[in-house]
Request: fold
Amino acid sequence: MAISRRSFLSRSALGIAAPSFIARGVQAIDPIARTRPSHLKLSIAAYSYRQFLQGEKKSMDVFDFAGLAADMGLDAIEPTSYYFPADAPIDYFHKLQRHAFLLGLDISGTAIGNNFCLPPGPDRDKTLKLTRVWIDRAAAMQAPVIRIFAGNVPKGDSEEAAVERTIEGIKQSCEYAGTKGVVLALENHGGITAEADQLLKLVKAVDSPWFGVNLDTGNFRTADPYGDLEKLAPYAVNVQVKTEIQRKGQPKKEPADLAKLVDMLYRVRYSGYVVLEYEAPEDPMKAIPEHVKTLRRLIDAGPVATT
Reply:
């Protein structure tokens, strides 16, 4: 018998009280039931090294990327789909998983460039097929989660229609993902997920145990990005940490308060991967190791004590 996300979570709940800020936010569905202290594992997204993984400056592949992560003492890597050979056989993914394993790394997940807002037709069929293909590839790498996107409303279309198509596309994909043991994580990434309440409506409508939120700490362009992230944090199955944020009406980005973000994860008892996705303009080869050290220090320090 099919199990909804709501019933799945309620069966696993052990009576934890939700943090106080949940009561002030949107309660679209039950937060993920987490009763144990947080266990945070530090990962790095391949997108952080995008200029070295593709294009004219390409100087590494995903195997080299794994080596960089191991050198920094990370727990895992997120090899984004864009940086694999287009025609890579399934054996290629097995080899990467073995390579990472021998380096002491997990593969925390992967990401695809899908668009579920598309209307019926060849393009929508293509994005649904892409999702299924990468579910298979994630399973081959023993990656537990895939970051997915809702997409953008097609020109001349209505947001309502795009939302309905997105819900249907995610539901269909989650059914297949469940057969492979892979969770799909919807990222707050503009479009119809530009605001926390919009994204939570999608999560409520999909209501699958193989679905959750990919919490991207740098993607809200709202008046209160940290407040919006707090709304989503209890539903996160994966976390993407960026080193900058940008508030609504603010012409430039500002450094993210990494301590505040890590403490937020501890307060909601999030357990899982914290994936650094570096997008700032400084040289990633120099900047990323320093950010990794900062995040490791903050994670090792544990939650901020409160009275």
